[in-house]
Write a structure and sequence with these properties.
207 residues; alpha/beta; 5 helices; globular
């Protein structure tokens, strides 16, 4: 168990500094210290052995909670493309060795798909585990359209080809604040915050 107090820490299963900072900001009004994997001496990330977002999120949160003795938050997310039967789904981050390769592969698979059939949905599931059990599970979705070529330089992953009709731009063409307000992860985190505000999550450790 790390030196952080279990009752006041929430471990985010990520080395992504931006993601940890985002969650830390969202929980700024709560008596909880948010840390990431980079803050631990043993920073190994749990595997994602399952074929659903929810099962992977549960697995990672439980593994980290057991390993560290801390309350742990984990998420699993990906892109589901209608014309590909939901692929790449849970394998979104493993669809290539980097973002460029993943985007190129996806666009090649959709080359002959007409514009009206290029619908897609980003999905994120967040789980929190504490003392050997999952104490909360939340899901967020964001629907859009896959373009035929990348647009924009912001964001990461599939953002440059994910067009969000309500804003008339791709996720790589909008600010981080705009994206957090409508994205799959932002919506899952907001659902989590609603549970916190209602006093339904973890009781005293996060209040």
């Amino acid at each position: 168990m790390e030196e952080h107090g279990a009752a006041k820490c929430l471990l985010v299963a990520s080395r992504n500094v931006g993601k940890v900072a985002e969650i830390r900001q969202l929980l700024a009004d709560y008596a909880v210290k948010v840390i990431g994997l980079n803050d631990l001496s043993d920073s190994a990330a749990p595997a994602e052995p399952h074929d659903t977002f929810a099962d992977n999120a549960r697995h990672k949160a439980l593994q980290l909670a057991e390993r560290t003795g801390l309350a742990a938050l984990a998420d699993d997310s990906g892109l589901q493309v209608d014309a590909l039967g939901g692929r790449p789904g849970v394998y979104s981050s493993r669809y290539g060795s980097d973002d460029r390769q993943r985007i190129d592969k996806l666009l090649a698979e959709l080359a002959d798909v007409p514009d009206e059939r290029r619908g897609a949905c980003f999905v994120c599931v967040i789980a929190i585990a504490c003392q050997g059990q999952v104490v909360g599970l939340w899901e967020g979705e964001c629907k859009g359209v896959i373009l035929r070529e990348p647009r924009g330089n912001a964001g990461f992953g599939y953002d440059p080809i994910f067009y969000y009709p309500s804003l008339g731009r791709t996720f790589a063409e909008i600010s981080t604040e705009q994206k957090n307000g409508v994205s799959h992860r932002g919506r899952a985190l907001q659902a989590m915050l609603e549970a916190l505000r209602g006093g339904e999550l973890l009781g005293h450790p996060l209040r």
